[in-house]
Amino acid sequence: MERVLFGDNQFFGINHMSEEKARAQAMRFQDDRSIIELLDIAYAAGIRVFMCTTHARMASLCDHIRAHPERYAGFQLYPCMPYAHKYADAVTEHGMIGALKRFLPEERAFNALFKGGMALATRDLEAIAQLLIDAEMKSFAGLETPIIFLQNVVTDLLLGLGFVQAFRMFADHVERKYKAEAGFITMNMPRLLDALESVGIDNPIICANINKIGFRMCGGKELYEKTIATRQFRPIAMSVLASGAIPPREAIAYVCAQKQIRSIVFGASSRSTLLETKRLIDELSQPTPSPDSAVEDAFSTGPRHVA
Amino acid sequence: MTRIGVVGLGKMGLSHLAILNAHPEAQVAAVCDSNSYVLTTLHKYTGLRVTSDYERLLTEVELDAVVIATPPRLHSEMVRAALERGLHVFCEKPLCLNVADSVELAALADERGLVNQVGYHLRFVASHREAQRLIRAGLLGRIHHVRAEAFGGVVLRAAGSSWRAQRSEGGGCLHDYATHVIDLLTYLIGPPERVGGSVLNRIFSDDVEDEVYATLYFPGGTTGQLAVNWSDDSYRKLTTRVTIWGTNGRLSVDRQELQLFLRDRPSDAASLNKGWNIVYSAGLADGVWYYVRGEEYSAQLDHFVRSVEARRTPTEASFASASQTDRVVGLIKEDAIAPRSAGDHLTYQARPHRRKSFPRLRRFFVGSP
């Protein structure tokens, strides 16, 4: 697994801090060329992974990468599925079953699945899930996708429902069909790790918020630290900067001080932020960091109030 | 341990179910829905007890409370049945489609000492709580005007087939979107007493309005404007904003950020600046025990469970406060069809309303999986 992963929230108008900033970013990146420009900067800086939502706009970005294999040698994509709003809006408009119909490849397949009635429910569900995964993966055909993630809204919904067998179905399908490992994004990392182990997914890849102020770390920061330090899994830290609530050096020092954290995913909408964040991660990931004040600061309790 | 039945497994019901199922003090005793495929699948993979018959849920399962997330048309009858059996009730918004039912249910719940709450989750957003605190501290001076907006892009063509596209089911932008910000205004500064200049426009929908505009009149001379549109896909998802002008400044708040401009800094507010003050929900939010899609969804259910445990009323977003929203919705509907002067634009009446007949509640929940 690569140490530094480039994320995509900034490209699709997602900002956990400010609606205004989110809109400004949506405008800035509405042309694919502006996204590609930043991907190229990331690639030139040595970043080899783009961790991206299966947003409709990924189709043309994937086309671009496929069309320029020499420019993107060794470049990998970690798709994160699904883009949940697409489904949520469809449910609002068409109801639960109506929405499902819209996203399955052809209506006949759907009707065939439902024709058998209740007795087939078990088999149907897995078949439906596979069809949905395949639909989400269509854009990525021919590209390197060694890890495929389940987005947090879906992971955490299934986890809350206690429907943990679904994680196994997901992992099995992406392994069988795409020769990929499953990854899971969550806001409830310790609980998810228990669930994944319970269905035999050992040493799982879990991407979770890991940041100094405990932002969206359910179960609490201490439990996260203990889980990371003592249990067998491959953590990827996201929301390291807590949407800008923590100064970059302090934020990255906190994560890098936890040696078991494999990777860090971050987004950036400017060349300078991208390069500076990458440089900080490289610097603070050195095997024997000097015990400089930033690392110590990282473990002190900072103010939670951002003004 | 509070034993809860979850009724209606649409988008909100499933979300509530996942959050409650992970709550340390709640036990989901059974779930109820009319879709037997959903029930069978859920039972198979989670072991949850399921039924498609609401009356059987109430009579055969030992419950302390129910969470009702069915289409709004069904709320009043279902809530009443639960209250009459002595159950605490959390009901999705809007509480009822007419204010008389809401007021009656609020009275019934209070008379029986039952905890009652409506799913107005915006009250549990950190920036909104902070806004209420600042307003109550009088920082804005005398409030003279407010603007409440909600935009999103969920209805972009006429094809909608779910209950949200049907007026008689309680669909439409007024019930689905506008109620959120009307309730938020009630939470922040109290409910308006009158409305005027109301507009309910259709953009794409056949049977319901897609945008809502109205002028609001509050006690004491404060005025307000409401602007809501669920057919604006320049917004990625439901986005609300309330802006409040007072004699000492302006406060603008959305789900993520609070911007406060103060003309003068009050002597007792040392942490605030004269001029701009920006506070982010990310820095304010208390952690929740389980997160699915926003702290506020978890926080509102935690509030309900804790209130039931402590038999504590009134809750935040009580039936009584939600009935204020239903009252304002009723006023806007009346105002929108009231005859006006020349140039009338009676959009809400523009097409004759096709009355469909609906099965009775009993028939909606028949059989078992």
Would you write up a description of this structure?
Chain A has a single domain (4-90, 136-299), classed as TIM Barrel, CATH 3.20.20.100. Helix content of chain A is 50%, strand content 12%. By secondary structure, chain A is α/β, with parallel strands linked by helices. In chain A, helix 3 (58-67) links the parallel strand 2 and strand 3. Chain B is of the alpha/beta class and 369 residues long. The two termini of chain B are 28 Å apart. Chain B has an eight-stranded mixed β-sheet with strand order 8-9-10-7-11-12-13-14. A six-stranded parallel β-sheet of chain B has the order 3-2-1-4-5-6, sandwiched between helices. Chain B folds into two domains: 2-122 and 304-316, Rossmann fold (3-Layer(aba) Sandwich), CATH 3.40.50.720; 123-288 and 322-349, Dihydrodipicolinate Reductase, domain 2 (2-Layer Sandwich), CATH 3.30.360. In chain B, strand 11 and strand 12 form a beta hairpin. The interface between A and B is large, with 56 and 57 residues.
Quick description:
The complex is a heterodimer of chains A (307) and B (369). Chain A has 307 residues and is an alpha/beta fold.
